[in-house]
Amino acid sequence: GAGVSQSPRYKVTKRGQDVALRCDPISGHVSLYWYRQALGQGPEFLTYFNYEAQQDKSGLPNDRFSAERPEGSISTLTIQRTEQRDSAMYRCASSLGLGTGQVNNEQFFGPGTRLTVL
Amino acid sequence: GENVEQHPSTLSVQEGDSAVIKCTYSDSASNYFPWYKQELGKRPQLIIDIRSNVGEKKDQRIAVTLNKTAKHFSLHITETQPEDSAVYFCAASRKAIRGSTLGRLYFGRGTQLTVWP
C-alpha cells in the first residue's frame, strides 16, 4: 500500500492569497494529523481528526487556518489571507487509530508541502 | 500541556561508536514515546517506539529505554554507520483512546547526528 501523500509538494504564493493543502492518508487509517515544521525544528501540532470529526484544533495559530476531512479520508488544510510568517513545511500524518483499549498511535508522515509566502 | 526537552542538539561520533540521545518530558500522563529519524529533505520516519508498560525495547542496533519515575527516555544506537547520520526527534503523547483528543505528538527540538567514517 501507498504511504501518506500530500499535494502540492511546493506552493509559492503572494501575501494575502488563500492556499489549500491536501493530504491523502494511508488507506484505512482512522486518525489524521496536521503538523507544521519549521527548518531545524520538530513538527508542531496543528489539528487532528478521527474519521471526519475534528477532535482537536488547539494548535491552529489563528482563525485564518482551518481544516476539514468531510468523508473521513482526504483532508484539506486551508490558510486564508496568507502572511509571510506562514511560510513553513506543512506535514500530514496518519495512524491506524484502532484497537481495544489502547489505540494504536503510530503516526506515519507524508512528504510535506513546502509553503512559501512572498 | 506536555513539554519535551531533547539533548544534545548536535552529536558527532566515529563510525562504530555508540550514540545516545536523551529526552525528558513533563506530563506524567504521557505513555507513548516514539523516535523519528529525518534525513535531509525527507519525511520523519518512525524507527522505534516504547510504551509506558515497558522499560526497554531493542531492535537490532537501536534501543530505547524509559524511566517513568524520572520522566526521561533515551535512544541508543550501537555500531554506528555513516547512514545513521540524520536528525533524530523524540516525541511523547498520552494514551490515545478511541474518540479522544489525546493522540497528538509533542516533539523535541531534534538532534543532528553525524557519523564520521
Structure description:
The complex is a heterodimer of chains A (118) and B (117). Chain A is mostly beta strands. Helices cover 0% and strands 47% of the residues of chain A. In chain A, a hairpin with a 6-residue loop joins strand 4 and strand 5. Chain B is an all-beta fold. In chain B, the strands form two sheets. In chain B, strands 2, 4, 5, 9, 10 and 11 form a six-stranded mixed sheet that branches. In chain B, strands 1-3-8-7-6 form a five-stranded antiparallel sheet, with no helix packed on it. In chain B, a hairpin with a 4-residue loop joins strand 7 and strand 8. The mean pLDDT of chain B is 92. At the A-B interface, strand 4, strand 5 and strand 10 of A face strand 4, strand 5, strand 9 and strand 10 of B.
Write down the overall mean pLDDT of chain B. Answer: 92
Oligomer status: heterodimer
Distance, first to last CA of chain A: 37 Å
Computed structural class of chain A: mainly beta
Sum up the overall morphology of chain A in one term. globular
Largest interface: A-B, 31 and 29 residues
Question: Helix count of chain A?
Answer: 0
How much is the average pLDDT of chain A?
Answer: 92
What is the H/E string of chain A?
EEEEEEEEEEE
Percent of sequence in beta strands of chain B? over 45%
Structural class of chain B: mainly beta
Q: How helix-rich are the residues of chain A, as a percent range?
A: under 10%
What would you report as the Rg of chain B, rounded to the nearest angstrom? Answer: 14 Å
Count of beta strands of chain A: 11
Helix content of chain B: under 10%
Q: How many β-strand stretches of chain B?
A: 11
Main pleated-sheet profile of chain A: 7 strands, mixed
Basic shape of chain B: globular
Largest sheet properties of chain B: 6 strands, mixed
